[in-house]
Design a protein that fits this description.
- The protein has one domain (about 5-125).
- The mean pLDDT is about 90.
- It is built from no helices and 10 strands.
- The radius of gyration is 14 Å and the shape is globular.
- About 20% of the residues are buried.
- By secondary structure, it is an all-beta fold.
- It has a 6-stranded antiparallel beta sheet, with no helix packed on it.
- The chain has strands spanning about 10-20, 30-35, 40-45, 50-55, 65, 70-75, 90-100, 100-110, 110-120, 120-125.
């Protein structure tokens, strides 16, 4: 899926999934869903091929993995760089890739950019 459809849409909500184990501080999210002004949920995550996956799909439910912790899914307040852009319209979407697939996605808002990339198999979000 080409995420260029996000251009011109307003970011309404951000939902993330996190793997929580014991009393550890919540790590970076496993998944991010951007809910836009058309109520489309854009799912951003990493694949087993170490490429970035961007697809239209609804958030899944959290679940318990017993002694391995749990996966919690819910809205963010200020835990991701996307939180700073809630209510803003997407101006530009830029992808970076190779022959093997998508490696990064950069989404530009009026007040800044958010970069999504896969590093060492994990989803990493940063400001640009």
């Amino acid at each position: 899926m080409r995420p260029v459809y996000l251009v011109g849409r307003r970011l309404e909500r951000v939902i993330v999934s996190r793997h929580l184990h014991d009393a550890e501080a919540p790590p970076d999210p496993l998944d991010v869903w951007l809910i836009d002004s058309n109520e489309v949920a854009t799912h951003i995550t990493t694949g087993s091929d170490w490429c970035l996956i961007v697809e239209a799909s609804d958030p899944y439910e959290g679940y318990d993995m017993a002694e391995h912790g749990r996966i919690e899914v819910g809205p963010v307040s200020d835990e991701t760089p996307f939180a700073d852009h809630l209510g803003e319209t997407v101006l530009v979407v830029r992808e970076e890739g190779s022959d093997s697939g998508r490696l990064a996605l950069e989404i530009t808002f009026p007040s800044g950019r958010v970069r999504c990339e896969m590093r060492a198999g994990d989803l990493r979000l940063s400001t640009g």
